[in-house]
Amino acid sequence: METVITIRNAREGDAEGIAAVHDASWRDAYRGIIPGRELERMIARRGPCWWQSAIIRGSRLLVLDFDETIGGYTSYGRNRVPSLRYGGEIFELYIAPEFQGLGFGTRLFEAARKDLAEYGYPSFLVWALSDNERAVQFYLKLGGRLVRQATERFGPETRTRVAFAFQ
Asked: Fewer CB atoms near the end CB (10 Å): N or C, the chain?
């Protein structure tokens, strides 16, 4: 039997799978970076109902479908920081830990890049916490150029985040 791996638009019925990837990948990426209580709050806010609502609203959301199992997702759209002269933004791109290191992140990134360009946003940003070494290296490897640094508050603590530009 052949395993089918596709990247497709999220649809109703994907919310549970996306929420599971969000939960596992955020714990994997941010444990020790975002304070524990804040991380748990952030994960709890993004359960299946939140994702179902995003799907119904028509948010730009692609999933990595690994033989009917959601193995990753990316959400993207118009840049949320108008002072930065880039039309689009990839808001999130996460791969479940068991699917990492196999090239799926790059495939999801390229699919989002293509859709952003077709939507009229050939240039775009991606933000990452600077302490998330895997993400920083991933975006640098894909050709991202560091264009901005900012801080983000997580409870009583702050972390540096960096913006990568792509054109």
From this structure: N
Sign of the dihedral through C-alpha 143, 148, 149, 152: negative
Task: Record the tokens describing residue 102, joined without a space.
Answer: 């196999």
Which CATH superfamily, name and number, covers 5-166? Gcn5-related N-acetyltransferase (GNAT) (3.40.630.30)
Q: State the pTM of this model.
A: 0.94
Q: Which two tokens stand for residue 137?
A: 């290296």
Q: Is the pLDDT of residue 1 over 80?
A: no
Q: List, for residues 18-35, the tens digit of each pLDDT value.
A: 999 999 999 999 999 999
125 class by beta-carbon count within 10 Å (0-12 exposed, 13-18 middle, 19+ buried): buried
Residue-wise pLDDT for 55-77, tens only, equals: 999 999 999 999 889 999 999 99
Residue 54 burial class via C-beta count within 10 angstroms: exposed 0-12, middle 13-18, buried 19 and up: middle
Contact 154, 139 (CB under 8 A): no
